[in-house]
Write a structure and sequence with these properties.
The protein has helices at about 15-20, 35-40, 45-50, 65-75, 90-100, 125-130, 135-150, 160-170, 195-200, 210-215, 220-230; strands at about 5-10, 30-35, 55-60, 85, 110-115, 155, 175, 205-210. The longest helix is centred in the middle third of the chain and has 14 residues, at about 135-150. Helix 4 packs parallel to helix 5 and helix 9 packs parallel to helix 11. With about 230 residues, it is of the alpha/beta class. The two termini are about 15 Å apart. Strand 3, helix 4 and strand 4 (about 85) form a beta-alpha-beta unit. It has an eight-stranded parallel barrel, surrounded by six helices. The structure holds cytidine-5'-monophosphate. Cytidine-5'-monophosphate binds near residues 10 and 209.
């Protein structure tokens, strides 16, 4: 699995994202388009960023009945994204349906990644609201195993969980990990953070980095620094 840095383009308009992407003249970053940008600009933003030569992780975290997810995934696979995702909590049946919907007539498809337990959920809210009593790390590993058995390519998780996910699901099962900060940077609202170098050491395949790059005084320099630390 080729390691790469995915830049979370958490902007609310096409204008902002293009002003940002215009700064990158050499290496074109792998871009994450989340709900904010997608809901603001629609599928056209995906086509436009793709046309500029970027790989795209479309982070829409689908979670619905299998038939609905399957049909939505067919639409997304037509957008020619490189990676997209669903919630593992949608169950194995939903993940399998997502894979079916995503697979194009020629057999090709984007990578499909499962969101395990959101990092905004803690043990207490899981127990009190979701009635899940097992320890959080066991819940994450169980979701990862179910995703692997359903045929998905990997999971979104903390870099701190990447090693254990690889132990449980195999080396080629992809780990996509947010929560990355430079050693001298501001953590912001992220609680458990690691540096790009540490994420590499822990076995992450892709790091998702937003504000350390998008809010940097020199985003290209920050991106290059990330790539150097993480990819080598
Ligand atoms: O700006 P920052 O580097 O914190 O951005 C991280 C990105 O990864 C954001 O787009 C955020 O929504 C996403 N993410 C996350 N934690 C998760 C899942 C996704 O930070 N568990």
């Amino acid at each position: 699995m080729g390691k790469d840095v995915i830049v979370a383009c958490d902007f609310s308009s096409a204008e902002q994202v293009f002003t940002f992407l215009d700064k990158f003249k050499e290496r074109k970053p792998f871009v994450k388009i989340g709900m904010e940008l997608y809901y603001a600009e629609g599928p056209e933003i995906v086509r436009q960023i793709k046309a500029r030569g970027h790989k795209i992780f479309l982070d829409l975290k689908l979670h619905d009945i299998p038939n609905t997810v399957k049909k939505a995934m067919t639409v997304l696979s037509g957008l020619d994204v490189d990676m997209c995702n669903v919630h593992a909590a949608g169950t194995s049946a939903m993940m399998k349906a997502a894979l079916e919907g995503l697979t194009r007539p020629d057999g090709s498809r984007p990578l499909l990644i499962a969101v395990t337990q959101l990092t905004s959920t803690d043990q207490e809210s899981m127990e009190k609201e979701l009635l899940i009593e097992k320890p959080l790390d066991q819940v994450v590993m169980s979701y990862a195993r179910t995703a692997m058995e359903a045929g998905l390519d990997g999971v979104v998780c903390s870099p701190l969980e990447a090693g254990k996910v690889h132990e449980t699901c195999g080396k080629s099962f992809v780990t996509v990990t947010p929560g990355v900060r430079f050693a001298d940077g501001d953590a912001g609202d992220q609680k458990r953070v690691t540096t790009p170098a540490k994420a590499r050491e822990l076995g992450s395949d892709y790091i998702v980095v937003g504000r350390p790059i998008t809010a940097a005084a020199d985003p290209v320099e920050a991106y290059n620094r990330c790539v150097k630390e993480f990819v080598g």
